[in-house]
């Protein structure tokens, strides 16, 4: 660990859409902050995802504060277009992003947070964790029992069908990623899709009327402020962040030649066993089984029984000055989406300004904003 220490009013951990949106609002308020991102380039987390990925929400819903997404309405940006947009956003508003800075530990000494990286140690009055919910892969333990001839990948490692071994593929997990990847690999080989498929009753890919009717309902009804929203949040978090399928229909899967099978429940004789007892003969398994919370690097009393952060609308309940943006169902069903995280970022930025102003005398306050 480096002995170099840098001090800021606020440190934002993560330079994706959540961190950049928070930085935008803090910059407008004249606060002194820095954004730390583990990647070598802004937007790199999007660039690393599979080649054919496009966003599940149309362009008009993917802008960030002060900057509309540069694409026609009702088109779905590619993952590389999204990455380029984030990079352009950071440049446009001159946000202080420090790339190549992976945070290793976050702790607190007296009343100041200590953020440790390999290159430097940072101290801050407040910290925003905006590192995303897709950091630690979740793969079932019985995956270790699959025979060596079966190639195994997590969805975060998959790029395109060319990287797979010859033969059939079992995609495990029938959520958004699993359905999209299954259609992608089915172009070149026999593909099975295992898991509980459930189509969203109304998704942004269905019809432009979504913007007029469904989106306001999702934004304002499916939140932690309503009984319906709280019920949905409990169900989603119980499924480790799983949500209904937005874009891929059963008909699309059938047309692509994807065979839906039951959940993978075990491994027998080195082969996967699905719910009906059958054992698909495959040479590739792609685990679209989600991610663990990935907050083990935080040495503070914030973890609930599932390892997720204890917070209310992004404000840590047990650690003053600690905030989160971009967590699953942080405030609403769309908190993990680009537009949803931007809304949550605005709320958190206002909270930070109130928190820090309350602690600082007027003279020091004017110095920070100068």
Explain the overall architecture.
- With 370 residues, the chain is of the alpha/beta class.
- The strands form five sheets. Strands 1, 2, 3, 4, 5, 6 and 18 form a seven-stranded mixed β-sheet that branches. It has a five-stranded parallel β-sheet with strand order 8-14-9-10-11. Strands 7-15 form a two-stranded antiparallel ribbon.
- The two termini are 32 Å apart.
- α1 crosses α8.
- 27% of the residues lie in helices and 21% in strands.
- α4 links the parallel β9 and β10.
- The chain folds into two domains: 206 residues, FAD/NAD(P)-binding domain (3-Layer(bba) Sandwich), CATH 3.50.50.60; 109 residues, FAD/NAD(P)-binding domain (3-Layer(bba) Sandwich).
Provide the fold topology.
Layout (H helix, E strand, L loop, with lengths): L4 E9 L3 H12 L4 E4 L7 H4 L31 H14 L4 E2 L4 E7 L2 E6 L3 E9 L6 E2 L13 E4 L14 E4 L3 H10 L5 E4 L14 H12 L6 H12 L11 H7 L1 E4 L2 E5 L2 E4 L9 E4 L3 E2 L18 E2 L2 E2 L5 E3 L13 H22 L2 H8 L1
Parallel strand pairs: 1-2, 1-6, 2-3, 6-18, 8-14, 9-10, 9-14, 10-11
Antiparallel strand pairs: 4-5, 5-6, 7-15, 12-13, 16-17
By oligomeric state, this entry counts as single chain
Distance between the termini: 32 Å
User: Would you count the extended β strands for me?
Assistant: 18
Q: What coarse outline follows from CA principal-axis ratios?
A: globular
Instruction: Name the poorly predicted regions.
Output: 363-370
Please, how many domains?
Answer: 2
Question: CATH class of the largest domain, anyone?
Answer: Alpha Beta
Q: Mean pLDDT, as a whole number? A: 89
Structural class based on helices, strands and sheet pairing:
alpha/beta
CATH topology of the largest domain: FAD/NAD(P)-binding domain
């Amino acid at each position: 660990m480096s002995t170099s220490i840098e001090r800021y009013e606020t440190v934002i951990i993560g330079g994706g859409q959540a961190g950049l949106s928070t930085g935008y609002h803090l910059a407008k308020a004249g606060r002194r902050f820095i954004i730390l991102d583990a990647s070598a380039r802004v937007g790199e987390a999007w660039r690393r995802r599979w080649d054919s990925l496009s966003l599940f929400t149309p362009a008009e819903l993917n802008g960030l504060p002060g900057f509309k997404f540069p694409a026609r309405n009702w088109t779905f940006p590619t993952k590389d277009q999204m990455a380029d947009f984030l990079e352009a956003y950071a440049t446009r508003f001159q946000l202080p992003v420090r790339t190549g800075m992976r945070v290793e530990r976050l702790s607190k000494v007296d009343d100041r947070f200590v953020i440790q990286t390999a290159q430097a140690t940072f101290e801050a009055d407040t910290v925003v964790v905006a590192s995303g919910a897709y950091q630690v892969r979740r793969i079932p333990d019985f995956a270790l029992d699959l025979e060596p001839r079966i190639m195994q990948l997590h969805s975060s490692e998959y790029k395109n069908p060319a990287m797979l071994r010859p033969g059939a593929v079992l995609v495990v997990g029938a959520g958004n990623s699993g359905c999209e990847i299954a259609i992608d690999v089915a172009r070149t080989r026999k593909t099975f899709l295992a898991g509980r498929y459930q189509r969203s009753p109304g998704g942004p890919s269905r019809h432009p009327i979504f913007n007029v009717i469904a989106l306001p309902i999702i934004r304002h009804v499916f939140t932690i402020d309503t009984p319906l929203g709280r019920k949905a949040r409990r169900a989603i978090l119980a499924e480790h962040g799983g949500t209904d399928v937005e874009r891929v229909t059963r008909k699309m899967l059938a047309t692509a030649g994807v065979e839906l099978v039951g959940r993978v429940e075990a491994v027998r004789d080195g082969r996967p066993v699905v719910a009906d007892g059958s054992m698909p003969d495959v040479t590739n398994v792609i685990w679209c089984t989600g991610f663990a919370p990935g907050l083990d690097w935080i040495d503070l009393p914030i973890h609930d029984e599932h390892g997720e952060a204890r917070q209310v609308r992004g404000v840590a309940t047990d650690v003053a000055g600690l905030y989160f943006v971009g967590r699953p169902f942080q405030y609403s069903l769309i908190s993990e989406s680009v537009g949803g995280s931007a809304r949550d970022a605005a709320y958190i930025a206002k909270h930070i300004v109130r928190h820090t102003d309350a602690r600082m005398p007027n003279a020091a306050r004017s110095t920070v904003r100068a």
